[in-house]
């Protein structure tokens, strides 16, 4: 049974602007492992990756019904990819019972999260 759904869309230009200013923005959004993956990417792919993770984390917080805040911070959420590219969600290190999907176009990244009852 579905427990929650969340959706988020972000503009790549906004994320690129925040990311170019300093390391601070990405360090606030990405876990250590995600930062390592980000570091292996080049140019525009970095922006897509950061924007996609940002959107997925906001979507997850909406699916939980908390939004981003004390209870559910960006760094509490991790989205790792399986070897075939499929993204998988972790919250406070635990595998989440649910699904996440991420997409990018030339201008935006978007993500949808569906949580199911354990
Ligand atoms: C809900 C959240 C995750 C995203 O909100 P946002 O990006 O400002 O706005 P969005 O347009 O993506 O989403 C707004 C919608 O989220 C929904 N929403 C708000 N609180 C919610 C909650 N607790 N649970 C589920 N959905 C929620 C509402 O439907 C809202 O639309 P409405 O006001 O018209 O009803 C919010 O917790 C947030 O912005 N947190 C701060 C994130 C932050 O620190 N960003 C830093 C950027 S530098």
Which features does this protein show?
alpha+beta; 3-stranded antiparallel sheet; 4 helices; 39% helix; 32% strand; binds coenzyme A
Description:
The protein has one domain (2-116): Ribosomal Protein L22, Chain A, CATH 3.90.470. By secondary structure, the chain is of the alpha+beta class. It is globular and about 40 Å long. The protein has helices at 12-21, 24-29, 32-40, 44-64; strands spanning 2-11, 77-81, 87-91, 94-95, 98-104, 108-116. The strands form two sheets. Strands 1-6-5 form a three-stranded antiparallel β-sheet. A three-stranded antiparallel β-sheet has the order 2-3-4, covered by helices on one side. The chain is built from four helices and six strands, in the order βααααβββββ. Bound molecules: coenzyme A. Coenzyme A binds next to helix 4.
Summarize the biggest pleated sheet.
Answer: 3 strands, antiparallel
> What hetero molecules are in the model?
coenzyme A
Q: How many separate helices?
A: 4
Give the H and E element order: EHHHHEEEEE
Q: How confident overall, as mean pLDDT?
A: 97
Radius of gyration: 13 Å
Strand order of the largest sheet: 1-6-5
CATH topology, by name, is Ribosomal Protein L22, Chain A
Percent of residues in helices comes to 25-40%
User: Which structural class do you get from the secondary structure elements?
Assistant: alpha+beta
By CATH reckoning, the class would read: Alpha Beta
N-end to C-end Cα span: 9 Å
Tell me the number of structural domains.
1
Task: Please provide the count of β strands.
Answer: 6
Give the CATH H-level superfamily: 4'-phosphopantetheinyl transferase domain
Low-confidence stretches: none
């Amino acid at each position: 049974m579905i427990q929650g759904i969340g959706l988020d869309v972000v503009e790549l230009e906004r994320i690129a602007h925040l990311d170019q200013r300093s390391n601070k923005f990405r360090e606030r959004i990405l876990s250590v492992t995600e930062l390592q993956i980000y570091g292996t990417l080049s140019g525009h792919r970095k922006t897509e990756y950061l924007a996609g993770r940002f959107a997925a984390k906001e979507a997850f917080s909406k699916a939980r019904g908390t939004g981003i805040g004390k209870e559910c911070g960006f760094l509490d959420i991790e989205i790792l990819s399986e070897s075939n590219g499929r993204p998988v969600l972790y919250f406070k290190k635990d595998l989440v019972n649910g699904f996440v999907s991420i997409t990018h176009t030339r201008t935006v990244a978007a993500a949808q999260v569906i949580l199911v009852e354990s």
